[in-house]
Amino acid sequence: MAIPPSWIVQTGRSIWTQIWQLMMSQLAPPNDRGEYQRPQSEFRNQIEGKYSAQPHRYRLYIGWSCPWAHRTLVVRALKGLEDAIEIVVLQGDANAGGWKLPKSEHDCQTLAQLYRFAKPGYTGRSTVPMLWDTQTYSIVNNESAEIIEILNAEFNEYAQHPELDLAPIALQESIAQWNETVYQTVNNGVYRCGFAQTQAAYDRAHAELFATLDEIELLLKNQDYLCGDLLTLADIRLFTTLIRFDVVYHNLFKCNRRQIRDYPHLQAYTAKIYQLPGVAATCNFPTILQDYYGNLFPLNPGGIIPQLPDLSYLVELKS
Ligand SMILES: N[C@@H](CCC(=O)N[C@@H](CS)C(=O)NCC(=O)O)C(=O)O
Q1: CA pair distance 131, 58, nearest whole angstrom
Q2: Is pLDDT above 60 for 319?
Q3: Which domains does the chain possess?
Q4: Is the CB of 127 within 6 Å of ligand 1?
Q5: What confidence tens digit (pLDDT) does each residue in 205-253 have?
Q6: Closest C-alpha to 197, from 20, 40, 49
Q7: Ligand 1 atom showing the smallest separation from residue 67 Cα
Q8: CA 179 centroid distance within chain
Q9: What is the mean pLDDT of residues 126-135?
Q10: Under a CB-based contact definition with an 8 Å cutoff, are residues 114 and 64 in contact?
């Protein structure tokens, strides 16, 4: 006897909705309005006291797909710190969630185990980027916003480009203002769209995201960067979201009003940063596609990985 299609649909919908809500509440804990709230990072040390600036002492744990880790890779490349600060590239684990280490360290196979090795009893999230001290076996910092400030300022003695200051004092107020807006509405804004658990939460995040992108598009008509003529940390923080926008956020996170290719000035701005020496090598598009579409199971349960969209603007536009 054939099962009526409406029965299949209703049963599937009811079971899937419950499983989806359960998985989303683990992946992206919402507030009572269904809005995604990103947890605070817990390790917030600076390069001071027991952590002195030395070459080859600290390691950056990163994943190619992560926009927050990507910020640290771009600053490391622009400052020429590749030799002084080694990176450890982790792999996303589609089944267990979280990150796998490329080889066992201190008997740890995963980043979560390494976090607990450094801080027994740690129950927070084990995120990248993470700046690790190989002398004291401890986590210096796991907040990308602070790690990029550290890389900009604290290792100049060992940097190939110590003269490059991505946070000059005269621009610090403007940088802080852009950071606040761009974090809320763009960097975390795309996640607030993709991880929204109610229609209203998604609609709000989507409107705020495109309001900021429209505002920046207008601004870039008359200036090269967010804070004027100079590239700053605020631009790098924006860049790592823009470079993923057409590849994953537009589609997987439903940030679909426009793509970056539809904005002439944002497109040229993204291409200009992409073309800075060392930056293109930090953009690993196949891994970005694979990790977002392959590992965020509740958002893409079928597991099909789309093709890369047309990114020719990144190399064709000359700045
Ligand atoms: N506030 C953190 C966020 C970092 C973050 O959320 N990283 C993600 C990858 S894109 C992660 O490692 N997530 C693993 C988890 O939450 O378990 C930062 O900016 O450094």
Answers
A1: 7
A2: no
A3: 58-158 (3.40.30.10), 169-277 (1.20.1050.10)
A4: yes
A5: 999 999 999 999 999 999 999 999 999 999 999 999 999 999 999 999 9
A6: 20
A7: 10
A8: 14
A9: 98
A10: no
Give the atom of ligand 1 at the shortest distance from the alpha carbon of 65: 10
For ligand 1, atom 8, which residue shows the shortest CA distance?
A: 127
**Per-residue pLDDT, 94:** 86
State yes or no: pLDDT of 5 exceeds 90: no
Amino acid of residue 5: P
What's the CA gap between 319 and 316, in Å, rounded? 10
| Identity of residue 237 | R
Which of 235, 88, 106, 252 minimizes the C-alpha distance to 168? 235
Closest by CA position to 305, among listed 313, 315, 295, 314: 295
**Average predicted confidence (pLDDT) for the chain:** 96
Distance 142 CA to ligand 1 centre (A): 9
The tens digit of pLDDT for each residue in 261-287 reads 999 999 999 999 999 999 999 999 999
Contacts of 318 (CB under 8 A, 6+ apart): none
C-alpha distances out from residue 188 to 25, 28, 34, 240, 306, Å: 17, 12, 15, 12, 23
How close is the Cα of 125 to the center of ligand 1, in Å? 8
